[in-house]
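PROTOCOL LOG
Step 1. Enter all chains and additional molecules of the complex.
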Amino acid sequence: MQSMRKYLSSAWQKLFGDPVRAFGVVSVILLLSLAIAPAKEHFSQWHNYQRHYLTLIRDRGDAISLRRRFEPGIHQIWLPELGVVDRCTTCHLGLNEASLSDVSQQPFRKHPAIPHSLDGFGCVICHGGQGQATTVDEAHHSERAGEEPILPAKYIESGCGQCHQNALTGTPQLNLGRTMLTRYGCVHCHAITRPDGTKVLATDHPPSLVHIADKTTREWIYSWLKDPQAYAGSTTMPNYKLSDGDASDISAYLVSTSTPHAGDTVAADTKTAANADATAGPSLYGQSFCASCHAVQNAAGNLVGGDIGPELTRIGNKAKPEWLTAWLQNPRIYDATTPMPHYRFTPQQITTLTAYLQGKSDSDYGSGVHLDAASPQQIAHGRKLIVELGCAACHEINGVQKPENFAPDLSTIGSKPLAQIVFLPGMDHTVASYIVAKIRQPRAFGASVKMPQFALSASQTDALTTALLALTNRGKSMPDNLRVAAVPDTNYQPAGHAGKLITELACFSCHRINGKGGDMAPDLTWEGSAVQRPWLTDFLKNPNTLRPSLIRRMPRFNISDSDNKELTEYILAVYQSPAIDADLAPSATNPPEAVEHGRQLFYSKYACQSCHIADTKNDKGYIGPTLTQVGSRLTPAWVYAWLKDPQALRPGTTEPNQNLSDEDARALTAFLMSLKSAGGRGAKQ
Amino acid sequence: MMRRLNERVTLRNFAGLVLLAAFSLAGCKHPAPLNTALKATAAGTALVESSGGHQVGVTGTALKDPLVIQVNDDQGTAVAGAMVEFHGPTGVSFDPAAMITDSSGQATTSVILGSIGGRYQLSAMTPGKSKPVSLEIVETALAYQQRVGSILADKYCNRCHDPESSAERVSNHDNLEVKPHAFTEGDTLNKMSDADLTSIILHGGPALNRSALMPPYGNTLTAADVRALIAYTRAVADPPYQPAGTVYARK
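Step 2. Run joint prediction.
Step 3. Record the structure below.
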C-alpha cells in the first residue's frame, strides 16, 4: 500500500511535475483523443473492404479505369420518393463494373443483369435489409425494432411486385403466387387491397351449398370434410382437421337446411345406361373435351386434364345420378354462374355420360362411414361450427351470413414488424419464414387458430409467400406514377340473344373477348374480321381441328341451326376490327401468276412451311394452324393484315412479324386465299 | 518490483484473452459434424450419378428433381448403408446434407441453388474402404436475365430448337429439313459471337447464310429480349461458354 502510493506520487511528479512537462503531456493526450475518430474510421469494416477492393483491382488489366471510377468514403443512393437511403455500395463496389463478371468474391461481384439501374432503384427495394447501415451485421442481419434482415434470394421477385401490379414475363413465381391468392380462396377470408386502392378479388368458384342435399349424401360431406384431398388430390378446399363429431354435426346442418331445387330431380335413365356400349362413355367424354377443364387421375397416379373444373376421379362417390343427369342437361339451372358450358347433349348422350361418370368411383372411399340421424342439438352445434370456421366466407349456406373481414387484412403483410410476430421456437426471425410457417402449418401457432391446412407443394408455398411479401408499406406509400397498374378483367357482357348464348356456352371460360375471359383458346375480339361466314357456321356446328398438335380443343355443342345463325351473325357483325378495311383488302381470287409468286415466297423466301402445313403431302411443320383450307376460312383482309403485323391483331402471338413489304404480303395473301377446301365451302362435313 | 508484477498480470491476462479468442475462432471454424446421428454400416468404393445432375434451375430455389447418387462396391453392385455427404460452394444447400444409402444403395437429396447465377460444381463424397471417394456433379442456376431468356425460349424457340417432345408440347424439330441447334449445343453456339446470335435472331437464318426456316424476330422481340435469349444460351451451353473477355494493353 505504502509502495503503491509512493509509486503513484512519483509518476504524478514525473508527468505533471513542472508546467512545461504537464503542458506537453496534456497536449499528447489531446492529440490522441483527436485521433480516435479518424482511427475508428480507418479500422472500420467498410474501409477494410475498400482497401481489399483496391488490392483486388490492382493487378487487373483495366486497373486504371476501375481505379478512376472508384471513390473512397461512404457511398449513398438516396431516393426520397421510394424511401431509399442505401449505403450498400460502400462495400459492394463492383456492382456496376462489367469487367468484374469473373470475380466471385463478395462483396465485389458484379450485379447480374436486371432491367433497372441500381442508382435509380437502390438495393433494399428488392433485397430487404438495412440500407443505412455501414456494418455487415447491421445491414444484413438486424432484427431490431422496425428493421428486417435481408430477404432470401428465392423471394426476390416480391421486390418487383411492390411497383408492378401487373404480370411480368420475368417473374413467374410472383405471378403464380398472385394467381393462387385469388384461386385458392385466400381473399375470401383475408382482405387484400392493392396499393392503388383496388381490392384483390377471388377468381375461384366455391360451390353454393344451398341445395347440397340434391347433389350428394351426408356421408360424402362427412368424408369430404374430414379430408378433402382424400377425395380429390387437386382440390383447393383446405383441411379443417375436424373431429369425427364436428364433421358429423356440420354435415347434419348442411343436409338439414338444404332446400330442394327445381330441375334437380330428373330421374336417371339407368335402364338405357345398362344397355349402352361400354366404349360410348369414354368416347363421348373425349369428344366433348371434358378433359380440357376436368382432370382425372390415371392408373399411374398422374392427374390428366385441366384445372378449371373440379377433379372427376371419384365423382361417382359424390354426385347422385339424378343430380348428375340434371347438371349435364343444363348446369346453369343448379348454378347460374358456373364456368361449365351448357352442352345441349341429347337424352341418350346424357344417359351415357351419367353412367360413365357414375362409374368413376372408388368402392373403398367413405365405405366405413355410418352416420346416425342427428339430434337438434347436434345440428345447432354444426351451425355454430360453420359460423366459427367461416365456411360461409367461401360457400353460400342457408341460414348463415357471409362474414365480413373474417381474417386479418393482408394488405401490408410484407412489412409486418418483427416485434408484432410471435415466432415459434427454432424459426428464423424473418417475415418470410413466418409466412411460410403460417401457410404450411397454421395450427402450429396455437390450437385456437382457425386457419385451415392447405395442401400446397413447397414451390406453391414459396410462390404464395413471394406474392404476400410484395405487399409492403413502401408499395403503399410510393407516388402513384411510379406504380404499374394491374390489368383487371373488364366486365364486358355481350348483349341480346347472342349474348345469352355466349353466356350459356361459357365461351369466356376459354376465350377472351374485349378484355374478359380465359386464355386457353384464341382471343375472339376481332374474330368477325377474321373468318368467313360459311366456315364459322360449319365450325360452330362441328368444330374441326385447326392445330393438330394441341390437346385441348373446342368441344362440340349441339347448337340449333337458328342459334348457330344468331351466333354467327353476331360474331361477324360485332367482333370487327376497326384496323381492317375489307374494301381496301386484296381480292380473294387472283391470277395464277400472282398465286405462283406467293407460293414461291411462302416456300423459299419466308419458309413458312417450318411452322405451317399448306400442302399435306410435303409440309410437316405444325406449330401454327394448318393452312390447307385457309382460303375458305379467313378473309383476305385479315390474312393481309395478319401478315403485315400479327401482334397488332393478337398481342403475344408467337408468329413473328416478318416486316413484309406490301407487294410480298399481297402475293402471300393471293397464295393463301387460293388454298380452298375440297368441298368448296367450309370445313369437311 | 511492483511494476514487474503489474506487467506480469497484464501479460497473463493478455495471454488468456488471446487463448480465449483463439479457442472461439477455432470453435467457429470447425462446426460440429453434420452426421453425428448417422451411422454407416457399410462402405462402397465408387459413386455413380443416378439422376438429378445437369439440371437447370433458378437462383435461390430448389432444383425440380432430387439428386440421386448410388454407392457401388468393386464389383459394381449397390451398397446399402454407406455414408454419403454432399458438398457445394457457398450458398448451395442440401436437404439432407449427409445420409445413409437406402436398400438399393442410393442416396437422395434435394439441392437448393445459391443466389448467384452460373454453373455450380457440387460433390458427393463417401468415406470408402481405404480412402474417401468423391463424385463431381454440375448444376446450373439461372439469374434474372437468363431466366427471362428461358421463358422466351420456351415460348418462341423451343418448339423447333428443343428436339425433346413432351405430352403438352410436341417438338417440331424432326419436321424441319435443316435441323435447328439445341440451345445446349455449346460446340456450335460457343463459336458464334453475341453479334452473330443477335443478327440471326433479329434477321433470321439468311442473315448468316443459313436456312430461311429460321424466321426473323427483329420486329417481334425487343432488344432486351434478344439479350436475355443470348444470356440463356450462354448459361446452358455444354461444353460451357467461355467469354472472350476484354483485352487491355498493359503498361
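Step 4. Note key features.
Strands of chain A lie at 77-79, 84-86, 295-297, 303-305, 512-513, 516-517.
The domain at 161-203+406-482 of chain A is CATH 1.10.760 (Cytochrome Bc1 Complex; Chain D, domain 2).
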